[in-house]
């Protein structure tokens, strides 16, 4: 049974929800076959030097707690099932950020017999951060761009 | 008119809304202090609020293999326990809304309800991380609970009453009990850290080993309620320790100064010490904590008998 609220109320509630979502992105980090270069950069991003807690970013261990899946590497055929499972375990609304050239297109592994070639072959992706590996600043920029795009949605 | 005031006490002040708001503020202070100790900028002031609202707006997944009723009810029960406990302590320096002889024991039990719910919530799911987390949560409960209780008994024995409001008054009229009962104070403060599963006692939710312990399977609403309940418990626990050991709480200003002072010390301890293994936690509490609290009690009783 759905109760219908007046549209002004709907709008106000929506803006509160968006505000909370934009200001508290909890991330989970998954390596689907990268060379580990990108993962080291992601960890560097989360260190006190860049201090992402000032934007509300928090690294979570459990997919159930996370909003943003940060994914690296070309998806190997082995990691494919795990990636899909982790994606399905996250509660809605959820977003995916791909970090590194490998995740974009397969990168140096492009065309290999054992990779799917890019994360978007497997799960829907919301933001791409190119680079091999991207700098922490670039990763932050990618996440901020994703959050900005959330704000603009009606 | 007569039934309006209890309703206000339950829903707005000091229960309900006020308590949740102050819980969120205290969580922010705690996180900010730790960030500053680590030379970071730290979260913005509305961070805990944004976290909770976001979690409430998210989908709640009920995993297969759990008892649905328990899964949904446990966060509510835990939160209700923490909120009810607040009615018996002098929040913000005002007299407790409800009080009777012996409410100290009831308050302590209500505060433990949160931990019990956490343990049950973990044991309810079929996930191995939650199960280990639940075992650790309950093990930790058995280790800190007795020393914590003994530490709060000290002031009760000196004041000769089990009523929180009367102990608070007694503490306000006499020399600060932290001077005469230093050991009890230390045990109570560290016990609070254990109760809230803060570092160095965060083995039950050690994210590097067991993802996030008993709460691994919780998402959305359940997680938000558990977080909120913990924040409320932080405020209640701080108020309790401050009113017993730091010379009572008589007005809002004292409340703010004393609880925030305690929080600064607690945040310092959190960033100073590394996480203890669960067996080290138990060992610490039963070898040192319980012993200190017992010695304290013995001295108190002997002094009382001699006088
Ligand atoms: S983009 Fe470069 S650093 Fe990142 S996983 Fe691929 S090869 Fe490694």
From TrEMBL, chain B:
<feature type="transmembrane region" description="Helical">
    <location>
        <begin position="7"/>
        <end position="26"/>
    </location>
</feature>
<dbReference type="GO" id="GO:0005886">
    <property type="term" value="C:plasma membrane"/>
</dbReference>
<keyword id="KW-0812">Transmembrane</keyword>
<feature type="transmembrane region" description="Helical">
    <location>
        <begin position="70"/>
        <end position="89"/>
    </location>
</feature>
<keyword id="KW-0472">Membrane</keyword>
<feature type="transmembrane region" description="Helical">
    <location>
        <begin position="141"/>
        <end position="162"/>
    </location>
</feature>
<feature type="transmembrane region" description="Helical">
    <location>
        <begin position="284"/>
        <end position="306"/>
    </location>
</feature>
<feature type="transmembrane region" description="Helical">
    <location>
        <begin position="174"/>
        <end position="194"/>
    </location>
</feature>
<keyword id="KW-1133">Transmembrane helix</keyword>
<dbReference type="Pfam" id="PF00146">
    <property type="entry name" value="NADHdh"/>
</dbReference>
<feature type="transmembrane region" description="Helical">
    <location>
        <begin position="101"/>
        <end position="121"/>
    </location>
</feature>
<dbReference type="InterPro" id="IPR001694">
    <property type="entry name" value="NADH_UbQ_OxRdtase_su1/FPO"/>
</dbReference>
<feature type="transmembrane region" description="Helical">
    <location>
        <begin position="234"/>
        <end position="253"/>
    </location>
</feature>
<protein>
    <recommendedName>
        <fullName>NADH dehydrogenase</fullName>
    </recommendedName>
</protein>
<dbReference type="InterPro" id="IPR052561">
    <property type="entry name" value="ComplexI_Subunit1"/>
</dbReference>
């Amino acid at each position: 049974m759905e109760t219908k609220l007046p549209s002004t109320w709907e709008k106000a509630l929506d803006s509160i929800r968006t505000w909370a979502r934009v200001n508290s992105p909890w991330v989970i980090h998954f390596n689907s076959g990268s060379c580990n270069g990108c993962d080291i950069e992601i960890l560097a991003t989360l260190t006190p030097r860049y201090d992402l807690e000032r934007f509300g970013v928090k690294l979570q261990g459990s997919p159930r707690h996370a909003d943003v899946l940060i994914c690296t590497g070309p998806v190997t055929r082995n990691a494919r099932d795990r990636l899909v499972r982790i994606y399905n375990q996250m509660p809605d609304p959820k977003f995916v950020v791909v970090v590194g050239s490998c995740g974009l297109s397969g990168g140096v592994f492009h065309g290999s017999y054992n990779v799917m070639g890019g994360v978007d072959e497997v799960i829907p992706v919301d933001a791409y951060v190119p680079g091999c590996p991207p700098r922490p600043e670039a990763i932050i920029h990618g996440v901020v761009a994703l959050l900005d795009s959330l704000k603009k949605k009606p | 008119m007569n039934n309006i005031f209890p309703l206000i006490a339950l829903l707005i002040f000091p229960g309900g809304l006020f308590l949740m708001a102050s819980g969120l503020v205290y969580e922010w202070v705690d996180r900010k202090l730790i960030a500053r100790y680590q030379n970071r900028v730290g979260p913005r002031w509305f961070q805990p609020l944004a976290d909770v609202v976001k979690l409430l707006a998210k989908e709640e997944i009920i995993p297969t293999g759990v008892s649905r009723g328990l899964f949904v009810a446990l966060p509510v029960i835990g939160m209700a326990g923490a909120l009810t406990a607040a009615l018996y302590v002098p929040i913000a320096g005002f007299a407790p809304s409800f009080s009777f002889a012996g409410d100290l024991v009831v308050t302590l039990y209500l505060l433990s309800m949160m931990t019990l719910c956490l343990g049950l919530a973990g044991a309810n799911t079929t996930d191995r991380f939650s199960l280990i987390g639940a075992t650790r949560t309950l093990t930790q409960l058995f280790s800190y609970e007795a020393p914590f209780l003994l530490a709060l008994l000290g002031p009760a024995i000196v004041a000769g009453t089990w009523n929180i409001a009367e102990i608070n008054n007694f503490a306000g009229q006499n020399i600060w009990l932290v001077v005469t009962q230093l050991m009890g104070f230390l045990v109570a403060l560290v016990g609070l850290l254990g109760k809230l599963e803060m570092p160095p006692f965060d083995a039950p939710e050690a994210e590097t080993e067991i993802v996030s312990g008993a709460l691994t399977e919780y998402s959305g609403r359940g997680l938000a309620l558990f977080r909120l309940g913990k924040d409320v418990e932080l405020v209640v626990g701080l108020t309790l320790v401050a009113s017993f050991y730091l010379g009572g709480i008589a007005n809002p200003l004292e409340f703010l100064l004393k609880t925030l002072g305690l929080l600064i010390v607690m945040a310092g301890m959190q960033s100073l010490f590394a996480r203890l293994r669960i067996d080290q936690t138990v060992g610490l509490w039963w070898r040192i904590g319980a012993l200190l609290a017992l010695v304290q009690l013995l001295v108190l009783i002997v002094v009382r008998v001699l006088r």
